[in-house]
Amino acid sequence: DEEREGSLTVLVLYCSATRSIFAHAVPKKGLGQDIGPEGYLVEQIRDDILWLGHPQVMIRSDNEPALLLVVERALAALKAKGVTSCSEGSVPYDPQTNGAAENAVRLLKGSVLDW
């Protein structure tokens, strides 16, 4: 419980094509931070993907309901910008289905903890 009180919630995005990692601190998981017309998380995902310049993307995430809603809104925001996009959930109870993203999270945690 002490660790959770002092912890920071971070949205981590990983691009397998470029091996780019994006990290955004958020107050909580999900769409609770509705700053801007699309919400902070959705805007960050959209802007990161647009910055990479890919004409089509697949967004993978775990199957938490709060994150699935974020992904759904991000897909709509990308479509509005002309990016072909789709999503794929991970296999329940199998973290290896999203192994590259899990490695990016571990790398980020190690960098922050060493800092």
How far do the termini sit from each other?
Answer: 22 Å
Query: Averaging pLDDT over every residue, what do you get?
Result: 78
Give me the count of strands.
Answer: 4
Q: What assembly state would you assign to the polypeptide chains in this entry? A: single chain
How does the overall form come out from the CA principal axes? globular
Helix content: 40-55%
Topology order in helix (H) and strand (E) letters: HEEHEHEH
The rounded Rg comes to: 14 Å
Largest sheet: 2 strands, antiparallel
Strand order of the largest sheet: 1-2
The helix tally amounts to: 4
Low-pLDDT runs of 5+ residues are none
Structure description:
Helices cover 43% and strands 23% of the residues. It contains four helices and four strands. The protein has a two-stranded antiparallel sheet with strand order 1-2. Helix 2 (40-52) packs across helix 3 (65-80).
Keywords:
single chain, 115 residues, alpha+beta, two-stranded antiparallel sheet, two-stranded parallel sheet, 4 helices, globular
SSE layout and pairings?
Layout: H1 2-5, E1 9-15, E2 20-26, H2 40-52, E3 56-61, H3 65-80, E4 84-89, H4 99-114
Parallel strand pairs: 3-4
Antiparallel strand pairs: 1-2
Helix pairs in contact: 2-3
